[in-house]
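Marked as duplicate of an earlier ticket. Keeping the data here for the record.
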Amino acid sequence: MIFEGKKSSGDYHGSFNFKVFQDWFTKNLIPNLPTKKSCIVIDRATYHLVPKENIVVSEMRKLEIQTWLTEHEIPWESYWLKPKLVEVIADNIDKTPLVSQIAEQHGHKVLILPVHHPELNPIELVWGFAKNECARQIHKDLSL
């Protein structure tokens, strides 16, 4: 996949999102995995971790929360205040990333790397080497 960012933010972060990642994951990665039971290793980029039901409970009104709970057949009491309702949603919402669910439907497993362990992600090691080499070259040729 060749991805060209369309925004002028200087890098891909302004243009790359879950929709782009999910399309690539579903149409390009999954059909081309060499075995039926592959392990897909991903980092914790926000677009990797989007759940199936991506709601922001803190932005919902109390009535919307009550409606969501009712639709999902989760019991609640009319006298509960919003913080209690938010807590009930947080305890009951499926936070499994959608890409994990897609992978499992096709017999694969997604492994999400732990936080703050770039040594487990080979691309981070390559980028670290490349950035250090660039800095060394710039410093070597720099004259004041």
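See parent ticket for discussion. Residues 122-141 form the longest helix (20 residues).
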